[in-house]
Amino acid sequence: MSSHKDLIVWQKAMSFVEEIYSLTSSFPDEEKYGLTAQLRRASISIPSNISEGAARHGTKEFEHFLYIALGSVAEVETQLELARRLRFATSQTVDQYMESIGEIRRMIQGMIRRLGGPSSGRAKKTTPASPH
Q1: CATH of the domain at 95
Q2: What is the pTM of this model?
Q3: How far apart are the first and last CA of the chain?
């Protein structure tokens, strides 16, 4: 990889941000500083953290930023569900966005596994200390 721009997950996340901007443009004006801003910020955080992690020099640092991106994925899912409940978007529309964000989540999780993250089975396992 010569640049974060070569990562397909980054490319998909960038396209997803564009889709979120399109979706939120139809939200009520009073949500400009509420759900609209939160959803846009969380979606922007996904490719931003992927690119920042890719620019770091260590695998552990990259993995750390991928986990932050996963946190933003969870934020977006929550905010999309709220948009559905508040009827700012139809269930069908939200389901389409959930499919896209689910794909991005799986791609990020795959990258973490390839980097040696806990879900890969290669990470050191620890057991909790006995309370005695």
Answers
A1: 1.20.1440.60
A2: 0.85
A3: 50
